[in-house]
Amino acid sequence: MTPLQFEQLYDKEWDELELSLDRHAAAPSARAIAGARFTELYRHTCGHLAIARGRSYPPHLIDRLEHLTAECHQLIYQQRELGAGALLRIITRDFPAAVRAHSAYVATATALFLVPTLVLGFLVYTQPELILSVVDAETAAEFDAMYSGGAQSIGRLRDVDTDWAMFGHYIRNNIGVAFQCFAGGLFAGLGSIFFLAFNGAYGGAIAGYLTERGLGHIFYSFIVTHAAFELTAIVLAGAAGLRIGHSLLAPGRQTRVQSLIAASRQAIVLLYGVTAMLVVAAVIEAFWSSATWMPVSVKYGVAGLCWSAVFAYFAFQGRHAR
Fold it and tell me: CA–CA separation, 210 vs 222, rounded Å?
């Protein structure tokens, strides 16, 4: 299809969308943009923009579609940016839809995190002395103490007395890791790649070491529940960083600044969801995972429910929302 044929095919929809925007500009208090029709036109136009960019259609056509979608986006989110309705929309629709839309980046981030985890875990398990190439002897001894059978609260640091203090520690640590994985994307994606691989390797090395030491049953029962939210969030933060990096490496017909802005708008929804998941993970880690009175079988059962819920949420939630 030529650019002219493409424009002739969809020009009426674009005109209708422009007319709706003009009506709202003339009478902002009127509900000129309400209804499924405006949402449908906006969604179609976003698809048209993606096609036009992919086929490298003329700049004037892409500019028109970019302007249209940007105006619609600003108007929709200006109306919904505050309140419980906006939060509910992000949870029930925008966040899972954004994860599916970035599935290629999510898959890449998953591989970058998971492969080093498995490789280092196996190597340290078979050669325990390799743990000293990842952490020093004192840190290794601290992990021994944190996951020993005599630990009063599993996973708690020696200088922290309460679960609330550990909750603050987990929030600070997890947000820091996720930020590194995301912000590293500004270095053409190399930073995101590094932090995903590094954190995967670090976690795998610790897991391999504790397993070889005979502490695996305590360690895995501790991490298995909150990991559904924490590790998923870190991978998604890395995926958002990879999206940013790709926008800088391959801006297409846009300038790099324009491409970065567009990618940031898409990735910001991922960060909203990542932040929420890390808070949930910290709550579980501090008040559930660390409990020594809870039977291991119950922890694994709850963990199975959490992992199933996370996968189902991203696979199915919001697919038919309008």
Answer: 12
Cβ neighbours around 36 below 10 Å, total: 8
User: In whole angstroms, what is the distance from residue 57 CA to residue 297 CA?
Assistant: 58
Name the amino acid, one letter, at 87.
Answer: L
Nearest to 166 by CA among 185, 153, 179: 153
pLDDT higher than 70, residue 30: no
Q: Are 184 and 190 in contact (CB under 8 A)?
A: yes
> In the chain, how many domains are there?
2
Whether 148 is in a domain gets the answer yes
Q: What are the respective helix, strand and coil percentages of the chain, to the nearest 5? A: 80, 0, 20
Same domain as 137, residue 66: no
Measure the N-to-C terminal CA separation of the chain; round to a whole number of Å. 29
User: What single DSSP character describes residue 34?
Assistant: -
Average pLDDT on 254-267 reads 86
Distance CA(10)–CA(303), nearest Å, equals 48
Distance of CA 155 to the CA centre of its chain: 25
Q: Does 151 have pLDDT greater than 70?
A: no
Tally the residues of the chain: 322
Does the pLDDT of residue 123 top 90, yes or no? yes
Q: Are residues 115 and 264 in the same domain?
A: yes
Distance CA 307, CA 65 (A): 39
Domain containing 154 equals 101-316
Structural domain contains residue 29:
yes
Q: Is 87 part of any domain?
A: no
Calculate the alpha carbon distances from 143 to 122, 206, 252 in Å.
18, 8, 48
* Cα 138-139-144 angle, rounded to 5 deg: 95
